[in-house]
Amino acid sequence: LHEEGSEQELSTSLIPFLDVILQTGVRAMGGYRTRYGRNVEAMCFVGGSANLPGLQQYATESMKMPFVTSRFFQNVITPSTLRLVQEDFIHECAIASGLALKFFKNQ
Fold first, then answer.
1. How many helices (H) and strands (E) in the chain?
2. What is the pLDDT of residues 35-85, one digit of tens each?
3. Do 42 and 66 touch, CB atoms closer than 8 A?
């Protein structure tokens, strides 16, 4: 989270909150390891905050594991005219789209 001026103040003020989120990820990974007997190899951020400059680098350094870009739409069939838009809004739409898919699968 390396920005200049007021953006630096904002981003460094977010670090304690981000650390809490990352610690929640550590606990979730432990639960996954216990339940499935396998380690998590990489993590992915979704939602609008995933676009926060420096977030992936900070998380990678803190967690000592790679954070990858979401490929949420890889299994969603869309018209070709939306493919460019998907890349721009992938983080913002992933959560809402996942909830919608869950709803329709349960119908």
1. 3, 2
2. 999 999 998 887 777 778 888 888 999 999 998 877 666 677 777 777 667
3. yes
> How many other CB atoms sit within 10 Å of the CB of residue 40?
15
The residue ranges of DSSP E strands in 14-102, in sequence order, are 43-44, 67-68
Taking a C-beta distance cutoff of 8 angstroms, is the pair 72, 46 a contact? yes
CA–centroid distance for 34 within its chain: 22
Interatomic CA distance for residues 39 and 31, integer angstroms = 10
Give the integer Cα–Cα distance in Å for 66 and 87. 20
Cα separation, 23 vs 78, in Å, equals: 36
Q: How far apart are CA 17 and CA 27, in angstroms?
A: 16
